[in-house]
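Predict both folds.
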Amino acid sequence: MFNTELFFNSVPTLATAAVVTFKLFVCCVCLSLMFGTLSVMLQLSNNRAGYWLSRTYVSVMRGTPLLVQLFVVFFGLPLLGIKGQAFLAAALAIGLNSGAYTTEILRAGIQNVPVGHLEAAASIGMSRLRTWTRVVLPQAFTVSLPALTNEFTIVLKSTPLASVVAVTELTYAGVIIQARAFSAIEVFLPIAVGYIVIALSFTQLARWLERRLRDFHT
């Protein structure tokens, strides 16, 4: 029988954990974009060392499980003098992992940038860095936004892995409540709703941004 009292009593705790999940998600998205952008710039540069550094990063991140990467980052940070930062470790691990996929998404987007735009930038004396920041990346980001939205939705669904390093995000908070109350549906139903709300909000934001960017470029 559905326990209404447990359902309503769980909501405040789950709401607090949902805020943690949202913060973790935002941090992971920002880190993914940062790592992915730097990686794709290195990969498409004329620097051989940068190219191989980027390819190695992408291969390692895509070729090893995210859970293993999370443990490596979590236990590796104390070696750098950073201790007790479970949230940071989770954000870094998920962000680094997603950044490898973001690299490939942006690389495909960059290949769709018309060569004439690059030639026009060169003809007016724009530096390579300015060409990247003013011409290449804005167009590549616009083209890649649907694929990036899909990737970041996957990132949201990866955040429960943070629980293995004791980050009390939404799913982990639900597991704790369920273990005490010996009842699941009343706890995991609002958890599912929480993830849906975050995912739909992000998707709507991405669609709005896509429309604005397309209108800007046209």
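Second protein follows, with its predicted structure tokens after the sequence.
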Amino acid sequence: MSLDSQTLDRPIFENLPHIEAVLHYLVPMAEKPVNYTYEPPPGVKRHNGTYEGHTLPIYNARSITRELSLDQEGFALAVHDSAVRDFYDEDEVSRVYYPEAEQLLKDVTGAAKVVVFDSTVRNAQRAKQGENSVKEPVRRVHNDFTAKSGYTRARRELAAIGLDDPEVLLQHRFAVINIWRPIAEPIQESPLAVCDAQSIASTDLVAGDLVYRDRVGETYAVTYNPEHRWFYFPQMQRDEALLIKCFDSAEDGRARFAAHTSFDDPTSSPNAPPRESIELRTLVFYPT
């Protein structure tokens, strides 16, 4: 996997095979978007934003996997075997998968330190059956952190693991990188699309409040821009991991925010099994 590739130019990506699918973008709004992670008080909407669909080409990135990098496009694909037997077992995930993921990111990025701080399993069928620890795929274009909340969440998580002075680490370059992978059959339903970070303008990113019961976080919603370049890896397997950069403290032209969303693949069978996936959110600290 190359970490020094150049940004994909238009002729390269336009020659890739692609599908066309609907992606849901935030309609520009005057107030700040707000989204509750739980059922809000009576009279309060779960979210105040309106999303509209745009039919866009989503390019098959498998033939250019070696040309993609976290620092240029903001995402990369890695082949990675895991010893985890049951990704729905939270104890096994934290005991087995977290250390595996930390080592994977050290190998890919050259990081000096990696901290896994969150995991989410997604399966629409199980979520609808009421399993609290399982969520449905997110069907709106978004990025998990903002220029502000990348630092806020890092401070919170470093304090949680007992680090005496998080500010020492945060004075140096760090990133928030998600590791997303299938946990059962190859992905057929609700695959994940990732937007080339270099095609996203800063004005496309809209900071919104993500309201928890005990705190308020901040994420980016994204407004439509025809220059966005979307990619996916069809039929992702259990031994493949998609790395997505959601924040980078460096402001030197490297990718900082790679927006992403699940989508309805028009080539999928209507009887395709529900997507089963897990994502880890991690703090990646680069050598000083």
